[in-house]
Amino acid sequence: MKETLLKIREDALSAISAPDADLEAIRIRYLGKKGELTAVLRGMGQLTAEERPVIGQIANEVREAIEKELGAKAEAQKAEALNKSLIAEKLDVTVPGTAVNVGHVHPIARIQREMEEIFIGMGFDIVEGPEIEYDYYNFQALNIPPDHPARDTQDTFYISENILLRTQTSSVQARTMETRKPPIRIVSPGRVYRSDAVDATHSPLFHQMEGLVIDRGVTMGNLKGALEMFAQTMFGADTRVRFRPHHFPFTEPSAEVDVSCFACGGKGCRLCKGEGWIEILGAGMVHPNVLTMGGIDPNEYSGFAFGMGIERIAMLKYHIDDMRHLYENDVRFLKQF
Ligand code: PHE
């Protein structure tokens, strides 16, 4: 019996030492309920009382030896598997990466966002309106009745008699007065359309940003302050703002607004064509007729409005001398921003 036990130990240990040993199969074969060691232990009943503890001890030692080897081999197999996967999955973080070609934010979109940020910072909401618009919101609600001469200055694309492509974002002013109650503080960016021939400063499609503020006691001083803040944030802290009298049907009084040339500081240079000033927008106090048509009592409320071309701001800020660059989408041009 002793020989059988020692033989079992030898066989088991040699099986375990094989490189790809199936440890579970070996355990079942030798130590399992129907295993070889168990079978020997079952035969112990036939032993004498003296032999039994001796054989019992050997059997225990054999079991322990096999279990110990199984345990050690299991550890070794686990370590080897880990090692293999570490080698297989090794990542060389020093290999140079492949650059992904990412797109660019278009300079118009970029300037538009920058403008939005400035006005959001002053408490304005962004409101958008439709590009296909009723004649009413683009003209009539802005104090431009059907035969008004101001219509001639905006070469309008008509879709039908009372539907058109909006020529100005001022249409959003008229819409906003109908849906919001004062205090109103909005800017409205978007595309506008005019039947202009393409040249360095004209395009039949361009972008404007409108501003509208209505509350009790709003003054021209508030308008000037807001525009000064805008101009200084956009063009630099030294920028000054100048109002020149002008006429728009929907504002009274109206002004054209210039900023001091941020290239030469006002001395006169190529950018400002020697003027020292650059015109950037139109503005004024909302005409009482416009307030009334928008359902707002001009005796209780007053407001200011302004409108500016986003292309113009982008061209000034980035020193772009031809508007057509902005629409041709030549990546060599766009990559510069
Ligand atoms: N809508 C005017 C334009 O397109 C600009 C403007 C807006 C002027 C608001 C005054 C007030 O020229």
Tell me what the structure shows.
The longest helix is centred in the N-terminal third of the chain and has 38 residues, at 51-88. The model has no long low-confidence stretch (mean pLDDT 93). Helix 1 runs parallel beside helix 4 (51-88) and helix 5 crosses helix 10. The protein folds into 2 domains: 2-88, no CATH class; 107-334, Bira Bifunctional Protein, Domain 2 (BirA Bifunctional Protein, domain 2, 2-Layer Sandwich), CATH 3.30.930.10. Strand 6 and strand 7 form a beta hairpin. With 337 residues, the chain is α+β, with helices and mostly antiparallel strands. It has helices at 2-17, 23-31, 36-42, 51-88, 107-121, 135-138, 170-179, 220-235, 288-293, 310-318, 325-328, 331-334; strands spanning 125-126, 132-134, 163-165, 184-193, 205-215, 241-248, 251-260, 277-286, 302-309. The protein has a 7-stranded mixed beta sheet with strand order 1-4-5-9-8-7-6, sandwiched between helices. The chain is built from 12 helices and 9 strands. The protein is rod-shaped. Phenylalanine is lined by residues 168, 170, 210, 248, 251, 282-284, 305-307.
Characteristic terms for this protein:
single chain; 337 residues; alpha+beta; BirA Bifunctional Protein, domain 2; 2 domains; 7-stranded mixed beta sheet; two-stranded antiparallel ribbon; 12 helices; 41% helix; binds phenylalanine
Instruction: Spell the H/E element sequence.
Output: HHHHHEEHEHEEHEEEHEHHH
CATH superfamily of the largest domain: Bira Bifunctional Protein, Domain 2
Tell me the fraction of residues in β-strands, as a range.
Answer: 15-25%
CATH architecture tag of the largest domain: 2-Layer Sandwich
Q: Kindly state the mean pLDDT as a whole number?
A: 93
Could you give the order of strands across the largest sheet? 1-4-5-9-8-7-6
What is the CATH first-level class name of the largest domain?
Alpha Beta
| Count of domain modules | 2
Low-confidence stretches: none
Tally the helices: 12
Distance between the termini: 90 Å
The dominant shape is rod-shaped
Number of strands: 9
What about the largest sheet? Answer: 7 strands, mixed
**CATH topology description of the largest domain:** BirA Bifunctional Protein, domain 2
| Protein structure class | alpha+beta
Q: Tell me the Rg in angstroms.
A: 43 Å
**Overall helicity:** 40-55%
What hetero molecules are in the model? phenylalanine
